[in-house]
Write a structure and sequence with these properties.
This protein is of the alpha/beta class and 313 residues long. It folds into three domains: 3-112, no CATH class; 121-184, Helicase, Ruva Protein, domain 3; 199-307, Zinc Finger, Delta Prime, domain 3 (Up-down Bundle), CATH 1.20.272. It is built from 13 helices and seven strands. The protein has helices at 11-27, 41-47, 121-133, 140-149, 153-169, 177-184, 187-201, 204-217, 220-239, 244-251, 255-268, 270-288, 295-307; strands spanning 3-9, 32-37, 58-63, 86-93, 109-112, 137-138, 174-175. The strands form two sheets. The chain has a five-stranded parallel beta sheet, with helices on one face. Strand 2, helix 2 and strand 3 (58-63) form a beta-alpha-beta unit. Helix 7 (187-201) runs antiparallel to helix 8, helix 9 (220-239) crosses helix 11 and helix 12 (270-288) packs antiparallel against helix 13 (295-307). The N and C termini lie far apart (72 Å).
């Protein structure tokens, strides 16, 4: 009879967990691997309930496991413990329906991807661990930028590993923020980051150049959302300077974004930032309702904000 192992999560983290588990089973002698998508509980358990004397130890990976629905009560007796000759890895979405009733969970192995919050030191630990594996240091601002770019912890780990390997190949002793920009960001993401950071730091030339380039290559709505997220945080920082940590957590601002928002708060002040955020909301509303919002409207807002750089109110 098979052993059932339910893996739940999303994105690269779930794929990483699955890869780790299949590797662990392979090292224990489970060399036969078969994959399927969805299916039906009865057929899945019956087809994998036994093996011949000379058959290999098997792993069955079931993608989209949540589509099987809840396991019928009558089939619970067909499950065996971790010493079974066949392990069924049921890969499920984190927000999908529960495939196993609570009373039968002790018969299974349950693994769930844990996602630490944006401000958690666990994310720093993931990055530093991957850098240490490649025997290379990583600059603090590079850590901040990686956390800003990648929400999924699996993607965060794999991108850190990638940039670390590249830097080692280039005989570098430390990963810098520039390395992260060069090897982990697309042209569109790089332009967006330059615009956000340029506005926060009052860099007029870089901000306008990035905005001009994005107007020819990007959609307006996602940019408005990104600007609103960054400068809403800055606005609250400026208006309530004694409560920055609380607002950063409430708004989900990561270390890098919070640090740059703090710089914008100091540079522009609460009144100027309130006007800018209100203008972004107005442009976004006009865009959604078809009232003719345009890149020109956004450019006017950006120019007005930059014209007040350093004139804190």
């Amino acid at each position: 009879m098979p052993h059932l192992h339910v893996l739940s999560g999303s994105g690269a983290s779930l794929r990483r967990m699955l890869a780790d588990e299949t590797a662990k089973l392979a090292s224990a002698g489970y060399t036969g691997v078969r994959r399927q998508e969805g299916g039906e509980w009865g057929a899945l358990l019956c087809e994998n309930r036994g093996r011949g004397l000379f058959d290999e130890l098997n792993v069955v990976v079931v993608e989209d496991g949540e589509t099987l629905g809840a396991m019928p009560e009558r089939l619970a007796s067909m499950l065996e413990g971790p010493g079974a000759s066949t392990h069924i890895l049921l890969v499920c979405k984190a927000d999908g329906p529960r495939p196993i009733a609570k009373e039968y969970e002790p018969l299974c192995t349950l693994s769930k991807v844990e996602t630490p919050p944006p401000w958690s030191k666990e994310r720093d630990g993931i990055i530093l661990s991957e850098a240490r594996k490649q025997d290379i240091r990583i600059a603090r601002n590079a850590v901040f930028l990686l956390k800003e770019l990648f929400d999924d912890v699996g993607e965060l780990a794999s991108e850190t590993e990638k940039v670390a390997r590249i830097c080692v190949m280039r005989k570098r002793s430390e990963i810098s923020a520039s390395d992260v920009e060069d090897y982990c960001m697309s042209d569109g993401n790089r332009n967006l980051m330059k615009l956000l950071d340029g506005l926060c730091s009052g860099n007029r030339a870089e901000s306008m150049a990035s905005l001009e380039d994005m107007s020819a290559r990007s959609e307006l709505t996602p940019l408005l959302s990104a600007l609103h997220n960054r400068f809403r945080t800055a606005m609250y920082f400026a208006l309530f300077p004694g409560e920055r940590a609380g607002y950063a957590r409430a708004l989900g601002a990561k270390d890098y974004a919070a640090r740059m928002a703090g710089e914008a708060a100091k540079r522009y002040g609460g009144v100027k930032l309130l006007d800018f955020v209100t203008g972004l909301i107005r442009v976004a509303a006009n865009e959604r309702t078809g009232r003719g919002a345009s890149w020109r409207d956004l450019s006017v807002l950006v120019i007005d904000l930059l014209s007040g750089a350093g004139e804190r109110i």
